[in-house]
Design brief:
Number of domains: 1
CATH topology: Rossmann fold
Number of helices: 6
Strand content: 15-25%
Number of strands: 6
Largest sheet: 6 strands, parallel
Strand order of the largest sheet: 1-6-5-2-3-4
CATH architecture: 3-Layer(aba) Sandwich
CATH class: Alpha Beta
Radius of gyration: 15 Å
Helix content: 40-55%
């Protein structure tokens, strides 16, 4: 099912290099807003910065794949030495195709993001391992409503993942 993630985590920081390697992932594509940093913040948490360094040091490639057209994501990427693709148009495939082209030599790509209808759907359509994380901060009514609409899919995804473990 295209709306069900392959993996669900509480935070992007839960994606340890060991967990990513266990899943065979050598390239991690990351949504930016509400996955790495809240929409309302300009500075990432120290936990996220430490996590980024840990993953980079493990040899796993990192690339931001964001729908944003604003300069926050590219500035963050440049400052932290990672690739960035903006105006990705997820769930449509512009950004995912670009990432697959850039990382054509990768064994396995994954996309982590906070939204079912953009990140998970875009990854699954593109044949990329999909990882759902909790949004960092639902600061307005539209984000809360969207999150409420995603809850049945999240519950179904959690149930499916529990069944897969048995």
């Amino acid at each position: 099912m295209l709306l069900l993630p392959d993996l669900i985590v509480g935070s992007v920081c839960d994606l340890t290099p060991e967990l990513l390697e266990w899943h065979g992932i050598d390239t991690l594509l990351m949504d930016f807003d509400n996955t790495i940093m809240a929409y309302t913040e300009d500075v990432p948490s120290q936990d996220v910065l430490s996590w980024l360094e840990s993953v980079k040091n493990s040899g796993i490639c990192l690339c931001i794949v964001s729908n944003t057209k604003r300069g926050r994501a590219p500035a963050f990427a440049e400052k932290n030495g990672i690739d960035c693709i903006t105006a990705a148009k997820k769930p449509f495939q512009r950004g995912v195709r670009e990432a697959k082209k850039r990382y054509a030599g990768s064994k396995k790509l994954a996309l982590v993001g906070d939204q079912i209808y953009t990140d998970v759907l875009g990854a699954n359509i593109g044949g990329v391992f999909s990882i759902l994380t909790k949004p960092i901060h639902l600061h307005n009514i539209w984000l809360r409503l969207r999150n409420d609409l995603e809850k049945p899919w999240i519950a179904w995804g959690r149930r499916r993942l529990r069944l897969d473990e048995t």
